[in-house]
Amino acid sequence: MSIKKEKIPIVRFKDFSEPWIKNQLSEVAEFSKGRGYSKKDLQSHGTPIILYGRLYTSYESVISNVETYANLEENSVVSEGGEVIIPASGESADDISRASCVIDRGIILGGDLNIVRPHEYLNSLFIAITLSNGSQQRELSKRAQGKSVVHLHNSDLKAVKLFYPSYEEQSAIGSLFRTLDDLLASYKENLANYQSLKATMLSKMFPKVGQRVPEIRLDGFEGDWRIVKLGDVLSELKSGLSRELSNDDIGLPVIRANNISDGNLNLDRDIKYWFKEDPKGANTANYFVKKNDILVNFINSEAKMGTAAIVSREPDRETIYTTNILKLTVKEDYYPYFIYLMTFVQSYQNYIKSITKPAVNQASFTTVDFKKYEFLCPAFQEQQAIGACFSNLDNLINSHKEKISQLETLKKKLLQDMFI
């Protein structure tokens, strides 16, 4: 029998106000299991099939695009559309405490899948999402049993306490999260395409070893690229300040090795601070970073040695950098973003390894050796054209990363606030 409980989520659509209902899952759904099949049964064509591992290797609240296939055997379990499936085994309780809704008919549901068929007054997508989040998800995790392999049985699922609103509100919530998932998938696909395009362009728009011209060249440019030394293109090469730093925002933000990752400079996280008036007497203004400065790790673990990023915009406030970072300022007759790409993205890691001196805690290289690095360089106009091309592409990549982060943060918050 249904038990009404005066409970409502924090965030709710304005058209709904009734309290949610609480029931055991056994009272509002039917239960069964998938049958047979493993990875060795997969093939390039046949009937679409879902194996239990898909639910925790690439979790989706809605499964609608199945590109794994198998031969349809007698007594196979095939979806009718609207099933909620939950792994029956996995490596951890978190692995198997998640549910997906199968939208399409005619998909084989393999072994080690618990199958839940909600009654007609429940929306399958809503049930899949709520079982994967909030109090229901925590209850599933607690009921999962085992050590090296964790199991979750239909008998465990039947005892789960389910909170749900009217069918109309369930449908609205399900539609919202499906829209969010579709947006995330679209941005992630575009991001992957832009990253792939950048990798291809990097391999073709810079000369290969032993050559003086690139495979692909922008219109209007010709002639061999010339060899230059890194030291000859720099107007300044300076290491930063060595100071005790604070977590309190009471002075100047300080860029450290942790703020340089995968070619990006992140000034929004893990920032430490130093006083604007330096008690040790150093003129901190000499250590401010500006747009187009290149920052390089040169005293660090060997794994981080030589990692670099370009300052793509003027910092929002005066910002300095630590002693294990080199600040490179490029001369006016060279294009900074091209120098960054050609030197720190393309080909210099082998040179960095050759000049790095290992140490117990930190490795390092000398600026004298660093400035001797040689690379190919075209005329300024071609540097500018190539740099602008990649700068625009990086802006697209970074904007997609930012949008994905914003959507994931929004989704996480809504999952916390729209369910009981």
Overview of this structure, please?
The chain is α+β, with helices and mostly antiparallel strands and 420 residues long. It is built from eleven helices and 26 strands. The strands form nine sheets. A five-stranded mixed sheet has the order 3-11-7-9-5. Strands 15-24-20-22 form a four-stranded antiparallel sheet. A hairpin with a 2-residue loop joins strand 17 and strand 18. Helix 3 crosses helix 6, helix 6 packs antiparallel against helix 11 (380-417) and helix 8 crosses helix 11 (380-417). Mean pLDDT is 88; it is low at 1-5.
Which secondary-structure class do the elements indicate?
A: alpha+beta
Q: Using the CA coordinates, give the radius of gyration.
A: 28 Å
| Total count of strands | 26
Number of separate helices: 11
How would the global form be characterised?
elongated
- Largest beta-sheet characterization: 5 strands, mixed
Average pLDDT works out at 88
Provide the spatial order of strands within the biggest beta sheet. Answer: 3-11-7-9-5
Strand content: 15-25%
- State the end-to-end CA separation: 20 Å
- Share of helix among residues? 25-40%
Question: Could you name the key traits of this structure?
Answer:
26 strands, 420 residues, disordered N terminus, four-stranded antiparallel beta sheet, 11 helices, alpha+beta
Concise summary:
This protein has 420 residues and is of the alpha+beta class. It has helices at 54-57, 93-96, 124-131, 134-143, 154-158, 167-204, 230-233, 336-347, 349-355, 367-370, 380-417; strands at 3-4, 21-24, 29-33, 47-50, 62-63, 69-70, 83-87, 89-90, 100-102, 108-109, 113-118, 150-151, 161-164, 226-229, 234-239, 252-255, 260-261, 264-265, 272-274, 294-297, 299-300, 308-310, 320-321, 325-330, 363-364, 374-377.
